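Why does residue order matter? Because the sequence determines the fold. Keep that principle in mind as you read this record.
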Amino acid sequence: MPTSLIAKPPRTQEQALSKAYSILCYAHDTVESLLKTLRAVRSQRGARGSLTDEEQDLLRAMLVFASAGLDSMAKQVIHDTLPQLTDRHDKAKAALEVYATRRLGRVEIEDQMSVDTKFLARVLVSPSPRSGIVEELVRELTAGSLQSPDEVLRVVHHLGMDPKELPATPQRLRDVFVARNRIIHEMDIDFSHVSRNRRTHTQAAIVAMVNELLAMGHAIMRHVAGALAVP
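Structure:
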């Protein structure tokens, strides 16, 4: 497993991605700072064996911040580029059409599907029906946090990105998010642990997961930059 973090991606020339790129760089800087702090602490005490509880917390923080960076960056990409992508990228446009069809007919009344009149009204009173649908989609995609591979893949789908372009498989992503969610929602508690009441992690395992989350951000950035660069 890797013991160092992947490098930051090169700065994109697409102005629409400038904020998302900054967020991704902040995520890199934060997890790198935490890793340096962990290694400095261990070096100062001449550590060679297991990590202390405080050192485990630094590892946990690395995973939480990397995940937050991907979440925030992906939402910024959606906000800043989805209108352009759905106009210029065939797959993003097709995904928008499927979304609009599903939303317009998803209200069930007496066992029959009916038009979602509230959704239709919001779309019709917007400056243009198309922009109204895009705004609704942006609102849905950015309403919550990315806490599962399914949510990440949904964002990727609406950006018109092939899941095969992602650096991790859905199963590997699931493992990463399980670890992240245990930390955030359960304090990493595990009362069945032999010597501690919390799960323990190795530097190599956490660095690998962090790198996969950062690489996800790189891949999304690369795809959108390429799509926007097409005339």
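The radius of gyration is 21 Å.
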